[in-house]
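Sanity check

After download, print the first record. It should look like this:
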Amino acid sequence: MEKTVKKLLFIITFLFSLAIFPPMIGAKPPDYNGGVLNEYTYEEYFFLSGEPVKFTGKATVTEKEAKNQITTTYRFNLQDSKGDKLSRSVVYVTDRQEREDKGQTTFQTSVRSYSEKVTVGKDNYSLDDFQFSQGTISDNRPASDYYSGNIVGRKIYKKNSNELITVHISGRNMGYKNFWGATETQFIDYEIESNQGKAFITSKVSDSKTKSLQYEPHDPSLSSFIGGHAVISRSNMIGEYTYNIPYSRSKEEGTVHLSQEMVPTIDRLIVPKFRDLANNWAKDDIERLYSLGVFDESTQFFSPNTPMLRYQFTVGVLKAVNIRVMEQQANKNAPRKAIFSDLDPKDRDYLYIESAVEKGIITGTTNATFKPNSPISRVQAVAILVRALGMEGRAPSPNYRTNFVDNDKIEDWAKDSVYVAAELGLIKGDNQNRFNPNQPLSRAQASALIIRFLDFLENDLKQNYRDDMLFFN
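Expected structure tokens:
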């Protein structure tokens, strides 16, 4: 009993430590200047002098939140290789409005205060006026949030206290954040107007944070285990400026790049010791999920070929993506009433089921029953994953067909989820390209499916929101 309690405490502590990792806050490039940073260094390019000047130094970002207002302060003290200097301090205010009825959040950002001074050679640039507005919408789905925003602004600088330079700003940003990662990619166009003419700059910057599961071998032969898994958390930023400055002495145009990476962090996980997985095709997937606390078996046998139950699968998915569950009732004298007659609200994982129903991830088999100990079918499992992503609405208009030869066996309520899951690469057909919707999932098959789901959250979203945007947009 004592060992079980300690094990549970370890899992809870580990999941909490992952939950406070920065991706849960969301990715956000510093300021709106196309710069990148790591723990020690921030760098950006400055173009008002007629050529790209690379400034490097220290940036600090502080954020305070009161009610539905977020105040973010950026401070920069930078220098280039010639000793030129840039100092900047900007305070942005963001008003947040939750629309729980829509499952969405809107954000409106403006500038509260600003100060910027730049010296390049004999020229001094001082920010005289800064107008800025950004509107963002976040669609908050159970397993991941997706957001998009638009940016407009104008900066007016005084050069050497007399000449005015106006910078028109327009752009957009898009991103996602979930338990396994967060990426924000930002495009901003700058039009610089001065008495020398016009210049055009485009900055692209992407800030990514990801977690990955990695196997770590244990080499000594005289040991109680042969290896285990670790969660590797990584964070990096990449940026690119494309510039066209016709009035420069060399009529400069070109592209410059920036990149910074944080030092990874490592969290070692508990070591699985199942005795019936040696030759099982899903051994690695099962051990990964057990190490994460997704499946908390109390014996040394996982029974990979037995059916995965509806209750176990639903709880496992919510644990895998760290979906926040509903809180227990404060009044312990008033027992919680189960939402289905065949569930026990005293079960330690009961609230995962109630939360899954509340968030629209799963439904009962009838209005009154859940059938927790029934095997979960392939179609039921796929519907849970796609609903958790909030992507079931991405299927085509009604009366479409999936590409599976047994399309007619897929019930209408699940066809959207099956179509999207196939498009996302979460599922494939068998050798005859049949989906077999009503076939029960084994525990091994369910483990492999959840791992593919986590890989989508970790890698596919990052590919789509960073690489596809930066290199193919």
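If your output differs, re-run the checksum step. Summary of this record's structure: Helices lie at 2-19, 283-292, 310-320, 350-358, 378-389, 412-424, 443-472.
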